[in-house]
Amino acid sequence: MTPTAFITGATSGIGAAAVDEFVGAGWRVIATGRRADRLAALQARLGAEAVHALPFDIADEAAVAAAIDALPAAWRDIDLLINNAGLALGTRPAQEASLDDWRTMIATNVTALVGLTHRLLPGLVARKGAIINLSSVAATYPYAGGNVYGGTKAFVEQFSLGLRSDLHGKGVRVTSIEPGMVETEFTTVRTGGDQAASDALYKGADPMTAEDIAATMLWVATLPPHLNINRLELMPVSQSFAGFQVARGEG
């Protein structure tokens, strides 16, 4: 039987690449996101037999519930949940950051993720399925301006490990994938649409691509069912670890 993946944030970047990757490997995909036009284009390109589009804002709990409840019977048996939807907003230090941006990141990266996971867990347990949560190296390595974004991704990492513990003996695999620099719309969104800032960040860096992460997700998902990757951290070769900051007084 053809396996089914449920992929959030499928309208761009890693999520869109993951839809292509999994469909190309013979999976069916329930693709979700806010931009209905992009989901429709994805479905038209890959076929309605391979992609079922669910347009909603993942932070809208009622819309998520209604969309999942309305899934056709043929699409209700979900074997893999990929919690990819998420975002970073702002680069200012905490004392200058927007509280609204912080709340939006928490609502999307944490609250929406756990809500969707909770809703799909009974089916995933019944089918001995799998969960892949997209965290970040920011979960482990703090940087100036990362504040709440890094905090939300640390939550995703710890939540993934907690799920592994709670699902012990159920046959459900859970993985936290934690990428470093990936060139997508991520920085454009973070900077409020500043394409120049995005271009400057990635210029000459040879960053990872959305396709790199999508291929990694497929690898994790298709490992033998007795193997679990708990955490997977990856960076481009050009990226490594910075030194500690030191503030020095005068005199």
Mean pLDDT, all residues: 95
| Approximate helicity band | 40-55%
β-strand percent reads 15-25%
| Class inferred from helices and paired strands | alpha/beta
Tertiary shape: globular
**Regarding CATH, which class?**
Alpha Beta
Number of strands: 9
Characterization of the model:
It is a single chain. The protein has helices at residues 13-24, 36-46, 61-69, 99-126, 147-166, 186-190, 195-202, 210-221; strands spanning 4-7, 28-33, 51-55, 80-83, 130-134, 173-179, 182-183, 208-209, 231-234. With 251 residues, it is of the alpha/beta class. It has one domain (4-181, 211-234): 3-Layer(aba) Sandwich (Rossmann fold). The longest helix is centred in the middle third of the chain and has 28 residues, at 99-126. The protein is globular. It starts with a strand and ends in a 17-residue tail after the last strand.
Question: Mind sketching the topology for me?
Answer:
Blueprint: E1 4-7, H1 13-24, E2 28-33, H2 36-46, E3 51-55, H3 61-69, E4 80-83, H4 99-126, E5 130-134, H5 147-166, E6 173-179, E7 182-183, H6 186-190, H7 195-202, E8 208-209, H8 210-221, E9 231-234
List keywords for this structure.
251 residues; alpha/beta; Rossmann fold; seven-stranded parallel beta sheet; two-stranded parallel sheet; 9 strands; globular
Concise overview:
It contains eight helices and nine strands.
